[in-house]
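Quick one - first record:
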Amino acid sequence: MGLYPTDKSRKRNFAIITAIETIYILWAFYILLMIVYDPGIFGDRHLATYIVFWGSLIWSLYLILRLLKYSRMAKAVRYAIPAVIIFWNSVEILGRWNFFKEIWVHPGEYSLELLLIFGAFIGVTVLTIFTPERERA
């Protein structure tokens, strides 16, 4: 049995499909960035890197505009994952070009920001724990 059951009475497992799609997209763009970063192939200041940057940025903005039209949450989440992964290519390339200091590279310089992020995680966790069962459904 594959990811897509042939029996019409069973529903497809969208969690598995989304996970596999995410893995495919992550690795595809990871390999693409490694190719354009490699100085023996292109290098991070080559025209190919600029094309990947602008292509990823424009493509992700198009995907995000389409995402805004979705009304069903499950479909929107499935669509948002690749949109964000593609957008993140632009962020990665900007970091590679030293356009900004990355918080995860210099965590000691961003204590307040890290505390705010940690507080947000704690807040969401508390809200999730104390949300009544009928509202979760």
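second record:
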Amino acid sequence: MFFGQDISQIAFVFMVAAAVGGVAFAIFFPLFANALASKRIQAVTSTAKMPVKQSLRSRLIEDPKDARRKQIQESLNQLNEREKQRKKKLNLRTLIAQTGIDLSIRMFWVLSLVLGVIMALVPFIFALPWYVSIGAGLVGFLGLPRWIIKFLRTRRQNIFLNDFADAIDVMVRGLKSGLPVTDAMKIIANESGPPVGPEFIEVVEGQRIGIPVDQGIERMVERMPLAEVNFLAIVMAIQTKTGGNLSEALNNLSKVLRDRKKMKAKIRSMSQEAKSSAAIIGSLPFIIMGALTVLNPEYLNPLFYTHVGNIMLGASAAWMTTGVLVMRKMINFEI
């Protein structure tokens, strides 16, 4: 009898230890795996090589191809460093500037405060608990205004992407016909609508005060932080330092942009069914609650006016939010 109890205790302790070890493995193993993978990638892609003994002629005469490769590598390294610094400097002022609207930081906080007060008064008018009013006020003051800013920013970027490839084609045709880069950009600035036209106007106006084309495109990347605009900045920076056929490089860039656009449209169409299912599943509880409130207004009162009902609502909201975030992570793709 005692032997059996000892075996049961040992088995229980072993199971607890295995469970704790499994949880620790699941938490800490990705960290070690990422560290090992980073070390291996760094070792494979490291540019440090063993010194090779060169002849006197090779030391005196440098291969033009090697020199151009070095210049291209230096340009790419500089652009990568600037991109890292740009991501670190992303703040509220930058987000507002990327939306294209003329709004100061002070006015943004004033409008956020007004929206928070309005959203806090709505639950108070309907005699809901005080913490519901506080939560709604915080959402209206801190959450909803930033969501609106990010929504406007995303919408402006999508409009820009729809017209950006056409603008590059216009530049390619202008260069092939003999126009300089500045005149080709002026055509885009004058003929294209917002936001493509105003962005190129900024580049053209910058050239008038002495800002080079490559630096003007880099400033465009700050106002429009997209991979496609960064590609244009890389092409212009490399062409400025190493030379070459700019029209051919921009023509290849236009093909890449159109292929990326097609890929995004294909991914959007393939994930549309999953997004529709997620929207239906996410809105179904609210639709049912609204229907029950209309058919039998007193049926859901215990959820709002009792302590246990409030706890159930809070737990349901937490699980609902978790499910929505998980579904959003599963159906959103970036390329």
